[in-house]
Amino acid sequence: MTMKTRDKAQFFIVLVKGWVEKEGRYLLARRSPKELQMPGAWSLPGGKIEREIGKSILEKTLVKEIEEEVGIKVSEEISLVYNNMFQRVDGAFVLGLTFLCRYESGTPSALEDTTEIRWFSVNQLKRFKEAEDFLKIEIQHLVRYLSNNS
Asked: How far apart are CA 74 and CA 67, in angstroms?
C-alpha cells in the first residue's frame, strides 16, 4: 500500500531483533525454510513492529516476538546494539534494530518461524561457520558493544 503524504514521507518496515543473553551465552534461531527473507539461515529472534498506538512499542514487540519464536521471556530493559536499513527480496525496505536483552525465564524451543535454536558463547559466535554475511555483521557489532560496555 502506498500512502501519499504532504511531505512525501517514505515508509518502511521496522524490524526488532534481540541478542538474548543468559549467563554469557547468546541465543540464535534458524529461520524456517518457508520464510521470505533468508530462509533456513541462522538469525536473531525478533519480528516486525505492528501498527499500534502506545508507548514502549520497541520493547513490547521484542518481548512478544522472542516469546512467540523461541518460547522464552526476556526483560523489557533493552540496549540498542546495531541498526541498519536493507531491502528485502520482495523490494520492501526494512529498518533493522538489534537490541541486547536479558533472559528471564522459560525453556527455549523452536516455535513460530524457527526450526532450531542454540546458545553460543562470544568465542563460538566469532568462529560460527554457518553464519551468513548479515549475521557476521551482527556478531561484530555485538562483540564491539560488549567490549565498549564491560
From this structure: 8
3-state secondary structure of 124: helix
> 86: which strand partners?
94
Per-domain residue ranges of the chain: 13-141
CATH of domain 13-141: 3.90.79.10
Q: What is the pTM of this model?
A: 0.88
Q: What is the DSSP string of 13-53?
A: EEEEEEEEEETTEEEEEEEPTT-SSSTT-EE--EEEPPS--
pLDDT digits (tens, 9 = 90+) for 61-77: 999 999 998 999 998 88
Backbone Cα Rg of the chain: 16
The residue whose grid cell reads 558493544 is 145
Residue 98: what pLDDT? 96
pLDDT in tens, 116-147: 999 999 999 999 999 989 999 999 999 999 99
Closest CA to 35 of 143, 114, 145, 124: 114
Which of 107, 102, 15, 109 lies closest to 65, judged by CA?
15
Give the separation between CA 86 and CA 130, rounded to whole angstroms: 21
